[in-house]
Design the sequence.
C-alpha cells in the first residue's frame, strides 16, 4: 500500500500538522512518500526526510506554488497520484483548501477529518459537532483522506533520512491569483500548536476584560482563545475562535473562563488532556467535560489566580 502525504509548511518551517498526518499514515501502511510543494523550500524537504516513517520525499519548487493556490496544488497532486492508493493531508485550512479538488479530479469520495485508523479501509471521524463518531468503510480504490491532527501524536526524527527527489512543476492554471495576506503577529504560541490554551466566553462581558486572560496567558506561556459567542459579540478577532466553526485544539491544559460549553465549542477542545472550567453557573455544560471546575465569579477568580502565578 503506497501512501502519499502532502506536507503543510510556510516555505521555511514544517507545520506540526504534517507530523501528525504522517503518524496517521503509519497506522495504514509503511510505504510513505511525502510531497513538499512550495517555493525555495528545500530546507523543509530536508526536515521531512529525517522524520520517522518517511520512505521518500518529493520536492516541487516553483514560484507559482509560493502561496499554495488550491487549483495549482491540486493539479500537481493529481499528476503524481497514479501509483498511490492513499492521499493524505492535514484537516487544516491548508488541507481543506485543496484536497476536495484532488478528490473531484480523481473522482474519489473524500473521507474528512479522521481521528482513528481502524484498518486499511476503515476509519473513524466525528459527526454532529463531535457528539457522535462515525465508523466509515471506504470501497474506493484511491482513498483521499484528511487527518485531524489533534487526534494523532506527531512523528519525531527517525533513525535514517529518506531520499529526496525533484518533481517537475506544472504550468499555472491561472484560475485564481494571490492578492495579499495579513498575518496576526503575536509573541504567544499559535493557538492550534500551544501546550496551554486560556479561552474566554460571553461571560467576559467585553473585549477590554480579555486583558485578565492575557496576563495569565503570558505567565503560563499560553495561547488565548475564545468561544464563538465572544467572537460574535466583537470581544476578540475571529482567529481566536475555538470550536466546530473555529480552530480545533488539543493542548495539555485548556482553561475555559466564562464559557458555558455549547456542543459546538466542545467539539473544538474536548480532546484536551486536562480541562479546567471557571463559571459562576454551576449547571453550565462545560462542567460535564471538565477535569477541574471552579464555580466562581471570574472577575474575582482571575485576579486571584493571576496573583498566585
Sequence:
Amino acid at each position: 500500500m503506497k501512501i502519499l502525504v502532502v506536507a503543510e509548511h510556510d516555505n521555511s518551517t514544517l507545520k506540526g500538522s504534517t507530523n501528525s498526518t504522517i503518524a496517521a499514515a503509519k497506522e495504514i501502511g509503511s510505504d510513505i512518500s511525502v510531497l513538499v510543494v512550495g517555493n525555495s523550500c528545500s530546507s523543509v524537504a530536508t526536515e521531512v526526510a529525517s522524520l520517522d516513517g518517511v520512505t521518500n520525499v518529493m520536492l516541487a519548487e516553483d514560484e507559482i506554488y509560493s502561496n499554495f493556490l488550491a487549483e495549482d496544488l491540486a493539479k500537481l497532486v493529481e499528476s503524481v497520484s497514479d501509483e498511490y492508493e492513499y492521499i493524505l493531508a492535514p484537516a487544516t485550512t491548508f488541507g481543506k483548501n485543496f484536497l476536495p479538488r484532488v478528490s473531484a479530479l480523481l473522482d474519489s469520495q473524500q473521507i474528512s477529518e479522521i481521528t482513528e485508523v481502524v484498518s486499511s479501509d476503515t476509519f473513524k471521524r466525528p459527526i454532529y459537532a463531535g457528539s457522535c463518531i462515525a465508523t466509515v468503510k471506504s470501497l474506493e480504490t484511491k482513498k483521499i483522506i484528511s487527518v485531524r491532527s489533534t487526534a494523532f501524536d506527531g512523528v519525531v526524527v527517525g533513525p535514517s533520512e529518506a531520499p529526496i527527489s525533484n518533481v517537475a512543476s506544472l504550468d499555472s492554471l491561472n484560475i485564481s491569483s494571490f492578492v495579499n495576506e495579513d498575518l496576526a503577529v503575536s509573541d504567544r504560541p499559535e493557538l492550534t500548536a500551544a501546550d496551554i490554551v486560556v479561552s474566554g466566553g460571553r461571560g467576559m462581558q467585553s473585549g477590554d476584560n480579555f486583558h485578565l486572560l492575557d496576563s495569565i496567558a503570558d505567565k503560563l506561556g499560553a495561547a488565548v482563545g475564545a468561544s464563538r459567542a465572544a467572537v460574535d459579540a466583537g470581544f476578540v478577532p475571529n482567529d481566536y475562535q475555538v470550536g466546530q466553526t473555529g480552530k480545533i485544539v488539543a493542548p495539555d491544559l485548556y482553561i475555559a473562563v466564562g464559557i458555558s460549553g455549547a456542543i459546538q465549542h466542545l467539539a473544538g477542545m474536548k480532546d484536551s488532556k486536562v480541562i479546567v472550567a471557571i463559571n459562576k453557573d454551576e449547571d453550565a455544560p462545560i462542567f460535564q467535560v471538565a477535569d477541574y471546575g471552579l464555580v466562581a465569579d471570574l472577575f474575582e477568580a482571575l485576579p486571584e489566580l493571576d496573583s498566585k502565578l
Remarks:
- The longest strand covers residues 31-38.
- The chain has a mean pLDDT of 95.
